[in-house]
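Work package 3, deliverable 3.1, input record:
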Amino acid sequence: MGIAERKGRDRAEREQRIVAAARVIAEREGWDAVTIRRLANEIEYSQPVLYAHFENRTAIVSAVAVEGFQEFTLALREAALGATDTGNALKAVALAYLAFALSRPALYEAMFILPTDLRFAVGDTRPELRAAFGALAAVVAPFCVDTDLMTETFWAALHGLAALEGSGRIRPSARDARISLVIQAIVVCGNDASA
Amino acid sequence: MGIAERKGRDRAEREQRIVAAARVIAEREGWDAVTIRRLANEIEYSQPVLYAHFENRTAIVSAVAVEGFQEFTLALREAALGATDTGNALKAVALAYLAFALSRPALYEAMFILPTDLRFAVGDTRPELRAAFGALAAVVAPFCVDTDLMTETFWAALHGLAALEGSGRIRPSARDARISLVIQAIVVCGNDASA
DNA sequence: TTATTAATCTAGCGACGCTAGATAATTTCA
DNA sequence: TGAAATTATCTAGCGTCGCTAGATTAATAA
């Protein structure tokens, strides 16, 4: 009697198709092009079907963001693993952060810029988001006394670099130099109680 | 024959009323509430009149952003002037930056987050935007060899802190500690050629 | 087979940005 | 001064949006 199971699978698959379509359209044409009608066409169902999966459009953006956080975490972990020492790991993660943000701008936008349902830095924060924070914290920890504090600040610096470069406000050509500056600051200042 | 002048003044005043209304509504109810119809009601003209002043809605957001940059520059300069030494100036400016961003979130959003017509870091960048960058550069300069590079990085760090705190992603309670960290990094690392 | 429930669709509401074309006010000039 | 040209402004509406009520079809249970 696997009928219910099959239905569940079909439903999950359709949901995944919605999220995937949203992501593809956003990356190709920007988030404004991700409309409910467009997604409905894409999955070959009528519009109300989308509302059986997601409460509203924002929830779809949020679902894409969660996917993004998963891949983001993997990318950061991989960068850290490929490094030979803790200093290299820090820099590799910073480079991976910016490469991620700038190579998938729409995904990054969903994760960090657009309004979503996601709640951060509170008790019920989703594990995908916690994991991303953890991946940053892991490479920062060797260089500081207050890991949470330093991770937040490191994250903010990287987000600032990504957001400003992504919107054309700072010179792309100086990206590496800016990252080096951030890394150096953490290495030099991290273990200072006066911080 | 001051008729043309009076008309010019009337027109400029009406334009200012549009921008002011947009700003007030955005700050009170968010940018989504800033619709052309709403603004038309507010200034007591029909909708097409708005298009005699601005090419489209984005141009209105941009106009608010430019106003924001003017006030932003003043706020940063004032903070720098009130300081006793260069280190204090740096910290005062950083604090003023975050206070500005978090106390007028809609204005800051127009300046740095929403899509606008504004062009940055290029030849035809508007003087209001250059001035804001200059106000940051002025307090950073004493601490570095490459002022542009350091200013971009400082700015990115502050923007990251503002954006992440403004969207609830990092703890408001740790704001001062994060700023101290950023300031310390610049003071300690700035004059290092290895950066 | 029929009654019930679940799945899906059609059609439309109110609001959006924006604009064509009509009207009213003003200015120009014979 | 009075008709013609120009400018200022409005009404009305196009196409699109997110979202949903209510109808319809398909699947399940009795």
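The two ends of chain B are 63 Å apart (CA to CA).
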